[in-house]
Structure formats: structure tokens, C-alpha cells
Amino acid sequence: MLSRRGRRGAIHPASSAARARLPPDAVLGDKAYDSLAVRRELRKRRIMPVISHRGTPDIKDLGKLRYVVEQTFALLHQFKRLAVRWERRLELHDAFLSLGCSLICWRRLKKVLSCWN
Fold first, then answer.
1. Can you give the pLDDT at residue 45?
2. Beta bridge partners of 4
């Protein structure tokens, strides 16, 4: 396996810890992504596009799914280190992301448990 030289002469293995990424089964999108080129590219990659067509009503319950994603990003962006990625190393960013998710879960559990007492 080839390796590449990083900063300060350190040797890093060439993607030895990289996992194979599986493509998603479907991609959810709003009307802004409604184009034949986008749909064609997704189908070429065997990904089902779930995108509303312009001029038609929205897909039922798509807003509920998008709300979960948007709310998660909003919760994570309260931590400034996650709102703007300053770390050059992916491991550090992943560590801060895990820490942020843990803090969010801890705060929610603390709130729920205080209601029971």
C-alpha cells in the first residue's frame, strides 16, 4: 500500500482506515432540485429520487422527514466548533460531533427525568 507524506514529514497510510461508503437507497429533495439532469444522474447511480415536481403539491409527509434533519443541524450548530469546521483532521471533527450529540442527548434526558421527579 502506498503512503503519502503529510505536514511536517509525517507519513500517513493511504486510506487504510477508510470504510467503503454505500450509496443511499433514496434521496429526498424539494422542488429546487426538480430537474431532469438531477433525476437522471440519481437513477444512473441506482438511487431513487424523491423530489416534488414544480407546480404540483408537495409530497405527503416529506416535511416531517426534513424537519428532523433541519432540527438536528440546528441543535448541532449551537456548538460553534461544529457550525464552522476549524479542525483540519477528520478525527477531531468526528470527536466534537460525538461530544455534541452526547451533550444534546444528556440535556434532553435531564429535562425528561426532571419532569418525572
1. 92
2. 12
